[in-house]
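Researcher: Next sequence.
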Amino acid sequence: MGVTKTHMFTSSQNELAQVAKVLAHPARIAILDYISKQQGCICNDLVDVIGLAQPTISQHLNEIKKIGLLKGTFEGKNLCYGINEERWEELQQSFQVFFSNINFNCC
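Model: Next structure:
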């Protein structure tokens, strides 16, 4: 595959594309959906809920964390995750602006 030319695009375009790429995997959507419905941080139950192996869950969590949607805390040997509400709202607003600025005057 060719070299990406991210320098040709604005920082907001690159950021939205990166976030969309992370969110494009159904397992990551399922993980975010589950975490967002919990009262507090979750630690170990993702493997049972999502049905994927622990290393796979960890890889998905790392990708989600890279875009800032998760915050984590260590409790003993466990890493507990929760939704980063500030980032969640920021990305929600970015996508809202993007989708609301679409012009529908095509043939």
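Model: Strands lie at 70-75, 78-83. The chain has a mean pLDDT of 86.
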